[in-house]
Amino acid sequence: MAVSKSSAAASGSASASSVKKTGSSIGAPAQRNQSSRKGKRAWRKNVDIEPVEEGLEGLRAEERVTGTFLQNKKDEELFQVDVQGDDNIRKTLPKFSERVLTSTKILSERSAVPAVFSRATPSSKAEKRKAVSHDDKSRLLRMSKRMRKGPFNAYVDPNQVGEGSALLELSEAAKKAGEYDVWAEDVPEKPKVKAPHTENPRSHIALPAVPSPHEGTSYNPPLTAHQQLLRAAHEKEEQKLKSAEEVEALKAQLDKARKVAAAEAAAAQGVAPGMKVDEITEDQAEEAEVAEGSEPLPPKKMPTRKTKQQRRKAERLRAEKRALAEKAARKRMLATVDSAKALRKAIARNLATRERLRAQRQAALQEKLKQGLAGQKIGKYVVPEGEIDVQLGEELSESLRGLKPEGNLFRDRFINMQHRALIEPHAPNPAKKPRRKTKEYEKHSYKRFDRGF
């Protein structure tokens, strides 16, 4: 049995070595004859790959002819049922000729696979859009200080003005140069500025230029009118005194607060109020602390970095709070769904009330505007209301001969023009007193002017 097994193994190895090819017909590197296949390296070196290469070459031939593999195509693309003949097919087919040059055969066999280009060309519109524009290309060339072609194929110097990385565009004046002729008679019209659509308060004011005076200003007024005018003047003066007292009280309160703060600061420093003490610097304070032997303050503990467990716990708490808030909001929303009709009616009532109040405010404003702009703030200043000219009971005269003039007609007309929006209001600007006083002195020649005669 041993002899027969060894002879069978020898015969099998001999037959395998006789069938095995050492190289492929397509151009694989030639291998020397090696009968032994001991080890992976020897096995891989002597393995037969001829069937695999033949199959791959067949697929490549299909791709060259059809552009893709035949197994990927559908039946409709491969087969066609011709139920009607074509007479022109004979004309389109090439004529058979035995005498065709080999070069002609090679050139006639065109591959359906597109050729490989030396430059990468974009295949889609998105890739084409990503291409560098002419402006970007010129800007990059200027930044890299490389020579680039200008007009008439002339090279542009990158070191000259305007050819660096910064773009120097033409100004508006340079772009519009030559459009405007200074000596031309026709002057271009300027665009008209549209005024805002706001009503002028002057159109609503019904105040006369010279209003009729109050009955109480007469030299012999009725008792009720005189008392009414006196009451109005008294109320106005009371308002002035009240505002002045409020200002004085505010000033006194501020002074008192300053004094209290100064006293507290002095008490904190341990000195008598009103005494000025030099400020203690940081070095002096440290020396005093060292001399007293006081313990220094413990250093502040810096916050440590949270661990993963702490961060997860904080995130879980935030998520729970967020979920509770969303649940409460959803609950409120579901509760308001049933009362949507009542809410709509309440909103309609509120809108109607607001509209009615707005109309009332507008009517009151129009009615107040008819009496002028007295007491209203126009711009930076308030329009003055004017003073009330009234005489007391003992100052009244029963005849025109004993009447004393009161008030100022110029002031009344000026304030009336401000009330009618003809003059803008201004604060009184009194004349400033000169800072330097005139010093008078006698010259030496005039000291004894009475003795020379």
Provide structural commentary.
By secondary structure, this protein is mainly alpha-helical. Helices cover 45% and strands 2% of the residues. It has helices at 2-19, 40-45, 50-66, 75-78, 89-92, 102-108, 125-129, 134-143, 172-175, 223-269, 282-292, 308-338, 340-370, 409-419, and strands spanning 148-149, 155-156, 377-378, 381-382. Strand 3 (377-378) and strand 4 form a beta hairpin. The longest helix is centred in the middle third of the chain and has 47 residues, at 223-269. The N and C termini lie far apart (182 Å).
Question: What secondary-structure arrangement, pairings included, does this model have?
Answer:
Layout: H1 2-19, H2 40-45, H3 50-66, H4 75-78, H5 89-92, H6 102-108, H7 125-129, H8 134-143, E1 148-149, E2 155-156, H9 172-175, H10 223-269, H11 282-292, H12 308-338, H13 340-370, E3 377-378, E4 381-382, H14 409-419
Antiparallel strand pairs: 1-2, 3-4
* Low-confidence spans: 1-20
Average predicted confidence as pLDDT: 78
**Helix- and strand-based class?**
mainly alpha
Order of neighbouring strands in the sheet with most strands? 1-2
Specify the helix fraction band. Answer: 40-55%
Proportion of beta-strand residues: under 5%
Say how many strands there are: 4
Radius of gyration: 55 Å
Number of continuous helical runs: 14
Largest sheet: 2 strands, antiparallel
- Can you tell me the overall shape? elongated
* H/E element order: HHHHHHHHEEHHHHHEEH
User: N- to C-terminal separation?
Assistant: 182 Å
